[in-house]
Amino acid sequence: MTRLHLFDLDGTLMYGSAAPVEISRQLGLSAEIAALERSFSAREIGPAGFAVRLWELWADLRPEHVRAAFDGSPWLAGIREVWQEIQERGEYCAVISLSPSFFVELLLEWGAHAAHGSVFPRVPFTQPVEEAGILTPEGKLTVADRLCERFGVGRAACVAYGDSMTDSVLFGAVPVSVAVNARPYLAARATHVYEGRDLREAYQLAALPRPGVGAS
Questions:
Q1: Measured by CB atoms within 10 angstroms of the end CB, which terminus of the chain is less buried, N or C?
Q2: Count of domains in the chain?
Q3: Helices 19-26 and 30-41, interaxial angle, to 10°?
Q4: CATH number for 134
């Protein structure tokens, strides 16, 4: 059975942090991003408003800041190993995140078949961010459906991994979901719950047995 594994990034693949936080840290803007994150969590601003504020905040952002943020982020252990196993089984793995596309797409280097984030202009910014390109929780499901078409699977063959309310729409649309270090709201809606720092352990909760394993 071919399946499509859909991974969130912030708080899921990354332990206790998010791409905007790690990028802002490189620019010395930790206090500013913390305030912005609080506004987003309190729903005082939505995804598009959050993205526009990020674009304004990151006026001095350069590619070396993005790479340093990526390399220094608190990733879960075992990400590349999990994605390698998924590929060896003939399955697919993709990342869908509300974080900026220029950061999310770096995960293609680790073996993801696809990586989709909110569409930001190329760094350093010479163009404004367009609100139409910013993902929402509903938009994550739209991306997932496009990936299903690309890889020749249906929603019934999808597994979603996430941690927060931004993953709730996707969790509600697929049969198998893994809440990874998740908020209680999402954990209550998941088929599996994982707390820890190793993606291999979270993946095993939803992985199908390898052919021949367990056979008498």
A1: C
A2: 1
A3: 160
A4: 3.40.50.1000
The full DSSP string for 55-111 is: HHHTTT--HHHHHHHHHHS-BPBTHHHHHHHHHHTT-EEEEEEEEEHHHHGGGGGGT
159-186: string of b/e by CB count within 10 Å (b at 16+)? bbbbbbbbbbbbbeebebbbbbbbbeeb
How confident is the model over 96-147, as pLDDT tens digits?
999 999 999 999 999 999 999 999 999 999 999 999 999 999 999 999 999 9
In whole angstroms, what is the distance from residue 4 CA to residue 16 CA?
25
0.90 exceeded by pTM: yes
Range of the domain at 117: 4-16+75-206
